[in-house]
Amino acid sequence: MRRLLLIIPAVAASTTISDCDVKHASAATLVSALRRGDFGCAATLASAVDATDLAVNEALLELRSAEQRLKDVRDALRTSEASSGKGMAPAHQWAQSGDELFVSVKFAHKWDAPATLVGENDVESVQFEEELVTVRARKGSKRFDLEIVPLRPIDPQNSSWVSASVGRLTLTLAKAQNQSWWPRLNRDKVKPSNQGVWWDKQELYDKERDKVEKVERERLKKQREEREKTPNEQLAETVEAKLKEDEAELELAEEMPPILTDEAQEASVKAERRKALCRKQAARERKEAEEDGKKAVVKEQARTQLALEDVENWLTYAIQQIDADAKKESAGIGGVVVGDGVPVDMPDVPEADSLLRRRAKKRGEPVEKKKRKKKKKDDSKEDL
Q1: pLDDT tens-place string over residues 194-231
Q2: Domain spans in the chain, listed from the N-terminal domain onward
Q3: Where in this chain does the record put each CS domain (predicted)?
Q4: Domain 91-215, CATH
Q5: What is the reported pTM?
């Protein structure tokens, strides 16, 4: 659209405001505006012209003629643009070390084809940007354009190029991140058909690859650990970093002239507030941990107390049952004799009764035998 606007003829110098006055609009003035190339004025007049005017047909014919002229100019522009468009992408090979990339460019459509004799003076431009490298050269009617979008950013300041033999040049691209190993040169995963590996150059740096990959693995591991840190750990590290910054500011403020005393005092107050906040947070966390521990101990003690009470109740009941079995013969009653021989009814607990019967079967006989022996001794004493 910008180019089309450029080809619209300028309004003639004789054009005045009255020429576009809608009060005097007619097909004749419309045709005159079209012939001058004043399409804005023509549009204004067309909205007010009388459609019954016989000269309207002449205006339409003039408009079609202008459209045809515009079309011819547009086609000419497109032809010119196509002839001066992007050139051929030259073949290239690449290698790398831990800190640099090496690209050998051959001015041919493929690596095994004869190179065009492009010299250093035929290289129009070589530009290095963090995320784009461009090489432009021209030899006669042949034009070469190479664009490399690197996988990762490069350092333009430390990148360079040199003209090799005729028809070739070499790029040296400095990696922005040192000690890294790239799996490919381009950001796009689809490798260009005329791109290959510079094996002769790469063999010089193969021994360095293991060391670089080890450093990169450690860096990736550290980054992964940083991402996996809990919010509390990140907060603690942030607070610690802030404290270190404040301490550094305090040390710097002490060395500054007296004019910075107020700033140093403000930094000191901020540091003390942060320290107090950290201490308060740590104390709160310790208090919460102690309270949780106390609650757990109290809960465990209550559980243990209940268990002891249950055991005590069962033991009391078992002893009463054993005593009752031992005194049944002398008491002559169906209850349990406790203390002075007063019969006491046992609680109606079928499960407990069956349990005690099993226990009495195991431990009751020795008790009964002991009681019977004691009774025999008492009878022998009475006989005497």
Answers
A1: 999 999 999 998 888 888 888 878 888 887 777 776 66
A2: 2-83, 91-215, 318-383
A3: 87-186
A4: 2.60.40.790
A5: 0.40
